[in-house]
Specification:
Elements (H helix, E strand, L loop, with lengths): L1 E4 L6 H9 L5 H12 L11 E4 L11 H16 L4
């Protein structure tokens, strides 16, 4: 999460586009800042400070080759729920 200070001419759509890379994610910003913004998401004011999430990073991948080498094929199949 990052803090963003609203600038003149901003909208939640534009902020979402700038920070999250997709303006259609503006409801996420509104949900996180409803107490600051109030009941109308179309009305925000310069110098309001909003909390905005960042672009989600790709989840860490498990090194399956290493796991197979350490646990053996049977251990990996057990881990994956095969038996």
């Amino acid at each position: 999460m990052v803090e963003y200070t609203v600038q003149e001419g901003d909208s939640l759509y534009l902020i979402a586009e700038k920070i999250l890379g997709d303006g259609n994610r503006w409801p996420e910003i509104y949900a996180a800042n409803a107490e600051v913004i109030g009941s109308n998401p179309d009305v925000i004011f310069p110098n309001q400070v909003l909390v905005v999430g960042t672009i989600e990073e790709e989840p860490m991948r498990l090194p399956w080759g290493l796991l197979v080498g350490l646990a053996g094929v049977g251990g990996l199949l057990y881990y994956k729920g095969v038996f």
